[in-house]
Amino acid sequence: MLDFLYQSGWGAFTVLLFFQIPFVTVFLYIVYRKSFVDSGASDTASKKMTRVETIWMSGVIGIFLLVNIVSIPYFPAISTSQAAKLDKDIQDVDVTAMSWSYEMSEREFVVGRPVRFNAKSSDTVHGFAIYHPNGRILFTMMLIPGVSKSSLIYTFKDPGTYKVRCLEYCGLAHHDMNDELVVTASSN
Ligand SMILES: [Cu+2]
Fold it and tell me: Separation of 4 CA from ligand 1 center, angstroms?
C-alpha cells in the first residue's frame, strides 16, 4: 500500500520532506531567535529580518529544494522502478555475497541492456558496489542477511572491466572481497 512512497518521484519527495521537517523547524527557530545567546541585561530586542536576509534565505531554501527535487530520479529505488516499467529486455543476475566473495549467476553484460542485480547476503552484512573502469563508483547495495533480495537495475553505458567491491566492513578479509564484471559493446 505504501509502495508509491519508494516507487514514484512524488512518493520519494514526500518522504524527503517528512524527514526534513525537524531540521527545517530548528533552522527556522534559530533564524527567528537570531541567536542561542540570551540577550540578558542588554535586553536587545530581537530584530525582524531585513529584506536582504529574507531574499537570501528564500534563495537558500529554494536551491535546497530544487537540488533535492532534481535528484529524485537518481534515487536507486526510483530509477529501478522506472527502468522496470520500460518495455526493455532486462537481464536478471542473482548475486549472493558471503565472507569473502561473491557468487554471481552472470559476469558478462552488454552495453545498453538493463541488468537487474538481485542481491542477498548469506552470512553477514556485505556490500555490493560496482566501479566503472575509470574508477568511479556507479552504485553500492547494502546486503543484510535474513532480508529478502534487494534489486537494482543498472544499464551499463561503456564496455570494459568493472570492479566489484564490498563497501561494508565484514571481517578479516573484507579488503580482499572483490570481483570483476565484463561489459562488451552491444552486437547491433
Ligand atoms: Cu566487506
Answer: 32
